[in-house]
């Protein structure tokens, strides 16, 4: 990770060895939780020293909404991945958005942005996708709330162009604002 005091000059910090995939850090009850790849969680008081990673727990089977067949030999990415975590102002619970795939349908249009919720960041319940199925793969979801709308940004794979979808509700459904890309290829959504 890297740190800055002015958002212009950055200092690279030591590697966090507990991470094994895309990760996200969120503050919870005066501590920091780092969720790595929707697989593990570790904790820190100062963002430098981290506890050992422990597995996340899930209360339900995601296979109704999400494809659990991993097929790297077919060029498929592992799913779920790319967590983005925010707090639901209506319930106080954490919502995790992530990239995944629908379990069936046209192979080139099964990408989705999935959702799960938790009160403690350790135990999660899968929810239906907030966006999709659409596109081959969605990558790196990022959410911004402005006015009375929730704006979901994500990249597409393999070309990595950035897309924008909007909803009146945090948990969707989200509708893309245009048919085209808002940024060309090789831009991450975050």
Quick structural gist:
This protein has 190 residues and is mostly beta strands. It has strands at 2-3, 11-12, 23-28, 31-36, 40-44, 54-55, 57-58, 81-87, 94-101, 111-118, 123-131, 137-146, 149-157, 162-167, 175-176. The strands form four sheets. Strands 7-11-10-9-8 form a five-stranded mixed beta sheet, with no helix packed on it. Strands 3-4-5-6 form a four-stranded antiparallel beta sheet, with no helix packed on it. Strands 12-13-14-15 form a four-stranded antiparallel beta sheet, with no helix packed on it.
Helix-strand string: EEEEEEEEEEEEEEE
Inertia-based shape: globular
Helical region count?
A: 0
Helix content: under 10%
The biggest sheet, with number of strands, parallel, antiparallel or mixed sense and barrel status, is:
5 strands, mixed
Strand content: 35-45%
N-to-C CA distance: 15 Å
- Whole-number average pLDDT? 87
Spatial extent as radius of gyration: 17 Å
Please identify the structural class as seen in this structure: mainly beta
Number of strands: 15
Which spans of ≥5 residues are poorly predicted at pLDDT below 50?
A: none
The strands making up the biggest β-sheet line up spatially as: 7-11-10-9-8
Describe the fold and architecture.
- The chain is built from no helices and 15 strands.
- It is mostly beta strands and 190 residues long.
- Strand 12 (137-146) and strand 13 (149-157) form a beta hairpin.
Question: Main traits of this protein?
Answer:
mainly beta, single chain, four-stranded antiparallel sheet, 190 residues, 15 strands, five-stranded mixed sheet
């Amino acid at each position: 990770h890297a740190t800055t005091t002015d958002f212009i000059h950055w200092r690279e910090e030591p590697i966090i060895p507990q991470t094994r995939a895309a990760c996200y850090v969120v503050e919870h009850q005066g501590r920091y939780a780092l969720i790595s790849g929707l697989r593990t969680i570790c904790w820190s008081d100062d963002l430098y020293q981290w506890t050992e990673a422990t597995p996340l727990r899930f209360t339900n089977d995601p296979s109704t909404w999400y494809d659990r067949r991993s097929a790297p030999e077919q060029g498929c990415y592992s799913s779920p991945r790319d967590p983005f975590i925010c707090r639901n102002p209506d319930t106080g619970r954490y919502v995790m958005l992530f990239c995944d795939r629908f379990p069936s349908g046209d192979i080139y249009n099964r990408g989705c942005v999935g959702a799960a919720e938790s009160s403690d960041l350790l135990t999660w319940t899968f929810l239906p996708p907030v966006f999709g199925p659409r596109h081959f793969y969605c990558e790196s979801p990022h959410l911004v709330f402005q006015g009375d709308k929730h704006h979901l940004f994500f990249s597409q794979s393999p070309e990595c162009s950035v897309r924008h979808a909007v909803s009146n509700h945090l948990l969707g459904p989200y509708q893309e604002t245009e048919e085209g890309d808002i940024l060309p290829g090789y831009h991450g959504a975050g």
